[in-house]
Amino acid sequence: MHSTHILLEEPIRMASILEPSKPSFFPAMTKIVGTLGPKSRSVEVISACLKAGMSVARFDFSWGDVDYHQQTLENLKAAIKSTKKLCAVMLDTVGPELQVVNKSEAAISLEADAYVVLTPDQEKEASSELLPISFSGLAKAVKPGDTIFMGQYLFTGSETTSVWLEVSELKGDDVVCIVKNTATLSGSLFTLHASQIHIDLPTLTEADKSVISTWGVRNKIDFLSLSYTRHAEDVREAREFLSKLGDLSQTQIFAKIESVEGLTHFDEILQEADGIILSRGNLGIDLPPEKVFLFQKAAVYKCNMAGKPAVITRVVDSMTDNLRPTRAEATDVANAILDGSDAILLGAETLRGLYPVETISTVGRICYESEKVFNQDLYFKKTVKYVGEPMTHLESIASSAVRAAIKVKASIIICFTSSGRAARLIAKYRPTMPVLSVVIPRLKTNQLRWSFTGAFEARQSLIVRGLFPMLADPRHPVSIFISYLDLFYLILPNMFTIDCHQML
Q1: N or C terminus of the chain: which is more exposed, having fewer CB within 10 Å?
Q2: Domains and CATH numbers, the chain
Q3: So what's the pLDDT on residue 361?
Q4: In the predicted model, is pLDDT for residue 214 greater than 90?
């Protein structure tokens, strides 16, 4: 069994901890995915988020309609244009998520040891005694003694805005539960999660397909976050669906692992997906608390060795309402980076949080400091050992490029690519310096017209740790681009360049 532990660089001078960080030409190499919503949808706030370090904007369709998200996206485009900061778009599906419908949107108070009935009759009003849910088969899926969690962002154990229920008895299609903690639920929709219970609903629902084929196609989404991925077949079905939607055949699928069922089939899912999102909110419910860290480390390690991005969620929940994270949260972010995570995904913190810009900035600074003490030498040796010999030509060139760049203390690696594969392979070996991925557009035709590709590949680098994309001008040959790179010698004097165009 391969070790999942990556040690800090040694030695670390304790006095150096207090030294101020020197300004860098590049931001932190770890990427930040920000969820846009009520508190982060204006052009001004989105612009500030981009400047703070957000490189992927997530649109969560478990709430809000298509028009709402379209207006937010238009604001994102305006912010990108004004800040000149590239940003990718991620569509997060609803999937087989169970929801409580609260039409009146009035706050609902639940008292510990009281009883509440979950009913599939959505015509009824939500109250402290009765909660309408979006799934008619819950009574057939659960049994007395089972655990159900409910809230805007699910149960964390320390908040009073989500509730823990225990199934008491079943009455037809209704489920009678005992309330285990006092809580107040607010908003129009609450998420419901039955711990370690299989819900007989498709991973990609008809509602999801409708949103993807309309909003997704219109906006040429870069990433599809496939919620509640439980089997490799879920990813294959999603990819087959995307392949029929023109430009979305290039959209990358990130499998969102948030249940024991997805954890059980993790290896097969990883083979099929383009990347993995570890949804620790739901996983923290399905898994015992003492097991969550072990799964995180093992999953990130497997993603690293496969050269596929690993994204971690739920790291600074307290920043939803506070300007600073807790000590434990700051350490959690750092440990995620030291484990090898490619990106941090912020949900409630930027969606409805009071300090979306400050949250992105704070997480970025923690990532930057963590990267400075990441033990790249040990990571490199582990990765090379895992790949084994004989290496493929592609792996050999990528690993050699990183080794050479480190030996000559290069400031940056520049990689020419058209598919993005070469750049991702180099990033797989976690070089200590940024990788500038210069995407060379390719000419393609659909028999009716000619067009250039490359925008997808450039934006999809924005979720990979250490990759910074640049889309080349298709009107000029590669030789001219190389002459442009002389400009970087003036800014970054110890540069090491590699032409990986032959790798594609």
Answers
A1: N
A2: 28-94+203-373 (3.20.20.60), 98-194 (2.40.33.10), 377-503 (3.40.1380.20)
A3: 96
A4: yes
CA–CA separation, 348 vs 40, rounded Å?
11
pTM of the model: 0.87
Return the DSSP state at 501: G
**Closest C-alpha among 273, 219, 275, 274 to residue 247:** 219
Q: Environment class of residue 317 by beta-carbon count within 10 Å: exposed (0-12), middle (13-18) or buried (19+)?
A: buried
Both tokens assigned to 253 = 């699928």
CA 194/CA 237 separation, integer angstroms: 25
Are residues 452 and 465 in contact, defined by beta-carbon separation less than 8 angstroms? no
Q: How many residues does the chain have?
A: 504
356-372 vs 43-52: helix crossing angle, rounded to 10: 10
What span, in angstroms and rounded, lies between the C-alpha atoms of 295 and 473? Answer: 43
Residue 498 CA, chain-centre distance (Å), reads: 29
DSSP state of 374: B
Residue owning tokens 């299989």: 198
Q: Which residues are CB-contacts of 19 (< 8 A; sequence separation ≥ 6)?
A: none
pLDDT of the residue at 122: 86
Cβ neighbours around 486 below 10 Å, total? 9
pLDDT tens-digit map of 5-32: 555 665 666 555 656 655 455 679 999 9
What pLDDT score was predicted for residue 439? 85
Q: How far apart are CA 188 and CA 152, in angstroms?
A: 9
153 CB-side CA count, 13 A: 21
**pLDDT tens digits along 54-71:** 999 999 998 888 999 999
Q: How far apart are CA 51 and CA 174, in angstroms?
A: 49
Give the tokens for residue 257. Answer: 């692992």
